[in-house]
Amino acid sequence: MKKELIKMVKHLEPLIIIGKNGITDNTIENIKKALEKRKLIKVKMLKSFIKDKNRKEIAGMIADKTNSRVIQQVGFVFVIKKRGMI
Prior knowledge:
- The chain has one domain: Translation Initiation Factor IF3 (2-Layer Sandwich).
- The protein is 43% helix and 26% strand.
- It contains 4 helices and 4 strands, in the order αβαβααββ.
- Strand 1, helix 2 and strand 2 form a beta-alpha-beta unit.
- The chain starts with a helix and ends with a strand.
């Protein structure tokens, strides 16, 4: 199942980009809206945001705040899916 989900987003561009402003309430709301519409999205974290932060922890925190689940993380890009989606 996980492999099938990853194949679905493999060729998609990141829908949300997190930059130097970081994770704002507006960013979380935009991710929630995107998940409602698409169910499965890519999020990219820019190096200006990351600096010395742990990318895996950030992806997990975003997933918690948006009621989603991290499917894959490669470098600065991660894929999340809406919870409850098959």
